[in-house]
Design brief:
By secondary structure, the chain is α+β, with helices and mostly antiparallel strands. It has 12 helices and 9 strands. It is about 40% helix and about 20% strand. The longest helix is centred in the first third of the chain and has 40 residues.
Length: about 350
Amino acid sequence: MKEQAESIKSEVVSSIKNVNTLSDLANLKAKYLGKTGSITELTKNMKDLSIEERKNVGQITNILKNEVTEIFETREREINDAILNEKLSKEVIDVTLPSKKIKRGSLHPMTRITEEFEDFFVSMGYTVYDGPEIESDENCFQKLNIPVGHPARDAQDTFYLSNEVEKFLLRSQTSTAQVRAMEENVDKGPIRIVCPGKVYRRDEDATHSHQFMQIEGLVIDKNISMADLKGTLEMMMKRVLGEKTKVRFRPSYFPFTEPSVEVDVTCFKCGGKGCNLCKQTGWIEVLGAGMVHPDVLTMSGYDPKVYQGFAFGTGLDRMAMFKYGIPDIRTIYGNDIRFIEQFDRKDED
């Protein structure tokens, strides 16, 4: 039995030298270690042997099986190393060649313009305040001095959740956050906040969308005047649109401010000289503002004889269109990667 095992081992050693592929190695391994292999055959008649003979045959067979398995594993490593070395010699990589440009993400223009406004106002001591997009009619209109039946409601074609009787709607302006901030300020002290967020109106064309972004600001304190409002807006516009930007105030009307103004800036395309964008006027309207109406202060618990304030609001989408030269607001929400990835370059310019 021992001589037979030695003969099989010698045969394996001799045969394996001529094997150079993994498939041939697997076939040879099956010939000796498979279910019908030579080594397995050594134990075929063990049931006919005595206990002592079984023990002897089992010991010799196990030693042979371990030695042959190790021989096959060694040869398999040698073949794999040879295959790898051959691939390395053929597949040479020139590390001096320029690499492919790795694509990287780019911030959406709305994210950029929102963060730019927020950074500016936070640097001036404002708090960024957020409010819900589903609001009550009371917060969206009535507490902003726009009661039921007021003609100013006609200018805001609103999405009511069921019907107007239900009194809940998708907010048509971020001024609702100002109402909430004033009511939450239980000690009725000074407030300085900006409220960016989505608003909804039934509009759809190149310059209007049913969903768009607004940012509104509110300052309430003692001895606040129009001079504070003007200085704030001038600084804001220079920060966003450039240091050469000039600001113009025109009298206007809003139910929640008194006095109220429309704010224009010098055309960023022609610098105020007159062009087709500004319709040869040199000015572009960008936002509405004014001193907080005494009735609005009173409805939120402030004494208008003690506190004054100013408020302003503008469309972030419109500001992004001005800054980046976007001709159609609908492209902002089109999710086209070609549109989004260009804004890194525009900010660098």
